[in-house]
Specification:
Largest sheet: 5 strands, mixed
Helix content: 25-40%
Mean pLDDT: 89
Structural class: alpha+beta
Order of helices and strands: EHEEHEE
CATH topology: Alpha-Beta Plaits
Radius of gyration: 15 Å
Strand content: 25-35%
Number of domains: 1
Number of strands: 5
CATH architecture: 2-Layer Sandwich
CATH class: Alpha Beta
Strand order of the largest sheet: 4-1-3-2-5
């Protein structure tokens, strides 16, 4: 296979700035996000906002990010809670992170 036809898109690291709304504060949302992201190999940060939403920067491969959202949705479905992503923007990846962590403003 030549390098011209080799597709490495699934290995490309991307970073997404997200805003979540719904039942996302006082229910362990940030800690659940950390646990899931670290399990699937994503990095970044997550924090509560004063308006009741949660902001996150999530970084990983497309497959890791997809796994993160699948596992987060499954967890919320089991607990009969809901969330929606109200903002999602691709931003530049950040080097040197080793995990997804909670930020406190």
């Amino acid at each position: 296979m030549s390098m011209d036809t080799y597709d490495i898109s699934d290995e490309t690291i991307r970073r997404v700035a997200l805003r979540f709304e719904g039942t996302v504060q006082a229910v362990g949302f940030r800690w659940t996000c950390c646990m899931i992201a670290n399990r699937v190999g994503c990095t970044g940060w997550v924090r509560n906002e004063l308006d009741g939403s949660v902001s996150m920067e999530l970084q990983g491969t497309n497959d890791a990010i997809a796994s993160f959202f699948s596992m987060l949705q499954a967890d919320y479905n089991r607990r009969h809670l809901t969330f929606v992503v109200t903002e999602s923007d691709d931003i530049a990846p950040v080097e040197g992170e080793s995990e997804l962590s909670v930020r406190w403003k």
